[in-house]
Amino acid sequence: MRLVFDLNASYLLKLLMIINLVLSPVSNEVPEHPCVSPVSNQVFERRLIEKYIAENGVDPINGQPLSEEQLIDIKVSHPIRPKAPSATSIPAILKSLQDEWDAVMLHSFTLRQQLQTTRQELSHALYQHDAACRVIARLTKEVTAAREALATLKPQAGLIAPQATPASQPAAVGAGGEAMEISEQVGMTPEIIQKLQDKATVLTTERKKRGKTVPEELVRAEDLGKYRQVASHAGLHSASIPGILSLDLCPTDTNKVLTGGADKNVVVFDRREEQIVATLKGHTKKVSSVIYHPAQSVVFSASPDSTIRVWSVTGGNCVQVIRAHEASVTGLSLHATGDYLLSSSEDQYWAFSDIQTGRVLTKVTDETAGCALTCAQFHPDGLIFGTGTADSQIKIWDLKERTNVANFPGHSGPVTSIAFSENGYYLATGAQDSSLKLWDLRKLKNFKTITLDNNYEVKSLVFDQSGTYLAVGGSDIRVYICKQWSEVLNFPDHSGLVTGVAFGEHAQFLASTGMDRSLKFYSL
């Protein structure tokens, strides 16, 4: 009896080994029609492996290419399958549960692997999509810029040839034999010159009528000395590229504030409503100068990207690109007619342009100087203007004749800012020599020098509309009363260099911008 039991046990063990050897890895069952894959040496159910090959064309075990013709049938007898042992004991139940748990864990592991692979593929696809969008945006921007350049160059086709090689053009020698005109054949027509003269006559007549009286609404010096900071706005420009580099107020409504930032943007701000009206984008470098048109909803900006842009505030778009220079534009000034712009540049030229057509009417340099222009400003009458140079000179130019009529030496560093008084007599200049100089245009001489603190940087000068006060922006903000030239107030509120100062109507408030990214207002 014991011998029979041993024989049956041995037979059962061998049978189980055979069954385990031929379990299909796909169905996890003994195949009815087994076959062998020569690629992985695994046994499969032919019905299942053929379906898998039809869908994927590879071996399910190692992923190698596999076809139905490669499968090798296994000729086996079909013994009666032994009945599965019944779970009649606790160890058998535990073993069954353990096997099921192992299968679930293995399946879960496989799913996690597949999920991770899918995530990586999705991430890669998203990065590719983002890169493609960036390339498309850059190309669109370049195409737009090229179209703007083409539209600007078309009306100036006659100017390109003579401006490209200034040295080869005939020089127009004026007083002192120093100036050279580039666009001689375009120049300034008699109609334009007459328009400038008529405007100057009107302005001179109005100034004589006003005389030396100041408006009754003008803030008195003792009240101005009581000014304090009443508002500060730091959210106009980008925080990642800090710095507001230029400031201007609308002459007819000083509650409209215009700023240019290191973030390449121009911002129009309403002081009364304390909100941004428009953010104008288009420059490819920082915005160094801005001007608000007194009679139209139009603003102007200049940049080291060598362009001057004319913007519509209501439309929020660029309506004109003036390409008058080949290097950084350092100064910008609007003529009293409101139709023309004066610009200066590191390319050593000043240019006079029509804002409606974008045409450069004339472009002049001082051959003998050979240095960059750092700033430019029209005289209130509009027939003369001043430029500052990198070699510490201030030059006065006659616009109609396009000649240099006077030079003011005296500074020992590059001139950073100039400002004409509304009275038409005084010119204020600041330079990197930490000094402020006042010039009398009637006598063509320096009558006052204000020595500032050591290492003081003058960045902005402006007279109020009556010519009574002069504001200085740089290492701090200072306001002087004209004629006495005594300091009325001093504001050290900015944590960075002050880049712009401006008076409100009748000096009822003072505005300033700085490298600390803030726009500040001061009043009683």
Automatic annotation (TrEMBL):
<dbReference type="InterPro" id="IPR019775">
    <property type="entry name" value="WD40_repeat_CS"/>
</dbReference>
<dbReference type="InterPro" id="IPR036322">
    <property type="entry name" value="WD40_repeat_dom_sf"/>
</dbReference>
<dbReference type="InterPro" id="IPR038959">
    <property type="entry name" value="Prp19"/>
</dbReference>
<feature type="repeat" description="WD">
    <location>
        <begin position="408"/>
        <end position="449"/>
    </location>
</feature>
<keyword id="KW-0747">Spliceosome</keyword>
<feature type="repeat" description="WD">
    <location>
        <begin position="491"/>
        <end position="524"/>
    </location>
</feature>
<dbReference type="GO" id="GO:0005654">
    <property type="term" value="C:nucleoplasm"/>
</dbReference>
<dbReference type="InterPro" id="IPR001680">
    <property type="entry name" value="WD40_rpt"/>
</dbReference>
<feature type="repeat" description="WD">
    <location>
        <begin position="280"/>
        <end position="321"/>
    </location>
</feature>
<dbReference type="InterPro" id="IPR013915">
    <property type="entry name" value="Prp19_cc"/>
</dbReference>
<feature type="domain" description="U-box">
    <location>
        <begin position="25"/>
        <end position="92"/>
    </location>
</feature>
<comment type="subunit">
    <text>Homotetramer.</text>
</comment>
<dbReference type="GO" id="GO:0071006">
    <property type="term" value="C:U2-type catalytic step 1 spliceosome"/>
</dbReference>
<dbReference type="Pfam" id="PF24814">
    <property type="entry name" value="WD40_Prp19"/>
</dbReference>
<keyword id="KW-0732">Signal</keyword>
<dbReference type="Pfam" id="PF08606">
    <property type="entry name" value="Prp19"/>
</dbReference>
<keyword id="KW-0234">DNA repair</keyword>
<feature type="repeat" description="WD">
    <location>
        <begin position="373"/>
        <end position="407"/>
    </location>
</feature>
<dbReference type="GO" id="GO:0061630">
    <property type="term" value="F:ubiquitin protein ligase activity"/>
</dbReference>
<comment type="similarity">
    <text>Belongs to the WD repeat PRP19 family.</text>
</comment>
<dbReference type="InterPro" id="IPR015943">
    <property type="entry name" value="WD40/YVTN_repeat-like_dom_sf"/>
</dbReference>
<keyword id="KW-0677">Repeat</keyword>
<keyword id="KW-0833">Ubl conjugation pathway</keyword>
<dbReference type="InterPro" id="IPR020472">
    <property type="entry name" value="WD40_PAC1"/>
</dbReference>
<dbReference type="GO" id="GO:0070534">
    <property type="term" value="P:protein K63-linked ubiquitination"/>
</dbReference>
<dbReference type="GO" id="GO:0005737">
    <property type="term" value="C:cytoplasm"/>
</dbReference>
<keyword id="KW-0853">WD repeat</keyword>
<dbReference type="GO" id="GO:0000398">
    <property type="term" value="P:mRNA splicing, via spliceosome"/>
</dbReference>
<keyword id="KW-0808">Transferase</keyword>
<dbReference type="InterPro" id="IPR013083">
    <property type="entry name" value="Znf_RING/FYVE/PHD"/>
</dbReference>
<keyword id="KW-0539">Nucleus</keyword>
<keyword id="KW-0507">mRNA processing</keyword>
<comment type="pathway">
    <text>Protein modification; protein ubiquitination.</text>
</comment>
<keyword id="KW-0508">mRNA splicing</keyword>
<keyword id="KW-0227">DNA damage</keyword>
<comment type="function">
    <text>Ubiquitin-protein ligase which is mainly involved pre-mRNA splicing and DNA repair. Required for pre-mRNA splicing as component of the spliceosome.</text>
</comment>
<dbReference type="GO" id="GO:0000974">
    <property type="term" value="C:Prp19 complex"/>
</dbReference>
<dbReference type="InterPro" id="IPR055340">
    <property type="entry name" value="RING-Ubox_PRP19"/>
</dbReference>
<dbReference type="GO" id="GO:0006281">
    <property type="term" value="P:DNA repair"/>
</dbReference>
<dbReference type="Pfam" id="PF04564">
    <property type="entry name" value="U-box"/>
</dbReference>
<protein>
    <recommendedName>
        <fullName>Pre-mRNA-processing factor 19</fullName>
        <ecNumber>2.3.2.27</ecNumber>
    </recommendedName>
</protein>
<dbReference type="InterPro" id="IPR003613">
    <property type="entry name" value="Ubox_domain"/>
</dbReference>
